[in-house]
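Input sequence (221 aa), recorded before submission:
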Amino acid sequence: MADLEFYKSLKIDEFDPSNNGDDIDTDAPIESGVLNNLLLPVRPYTAEIGGERYFKFFVKATVDVLTLGLDIASFTTSPTEEVYLFEAGSNTELESDLDKDNLRLYGGFLVTNYDKDNKKVTADRDVSEFVKAGDKVTFYKEDNTKLVTWEVESVNGSEITFKTVSEDDVSNLKASSTIFWDALNKDEYKGFWVKEVVQPFTEAMEDPANEFVLNIWYDLK
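Predicted structure, token format:
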């Protein structure tokens, strides 16, 4: 048994917010690398007109753990889709409970330029919606292994300035704002949401399928 386990929510209905989310379903584990095990295939109608979809999942501890970090180590491979993370307000929260205009999102980007002298990174997109001052940004190698985490000083569009930087070269790496929390005791669990934004004229049932990688790390008590 792993130290942390991942589960779906009791209710999964992308078309009815009042029937999507709710509490943990311990009979529905999420298996890494299994196609559509967390996000359902994009339906042809949604792919044509665009839209947003929300999927809730849970992290459950089988031992006492602390200093946890969760983020998107590798963002979507589709040019017309984006995925973001955010914390659930409660473990029983439904999609209909969300204030969708004021979500605190976390997401990924690609570093296009690194100015070490000025402790500044330029991203391949405007990151101001999902990277904020005080956030921790984690940088990932090509194989999705964690390299280093830095704290954000300020954000201006696609430019991120950090409070301090290490000797690590983060040029051309993937990076993501990271959700941190202090502890998760044995048998406790915590809920999160994936927000998926589908642009109009996205390819439905993509082949090969669009994918993204979530990463979590922690310390044992």
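Checked by second reader. The mean pLDDT is 93.
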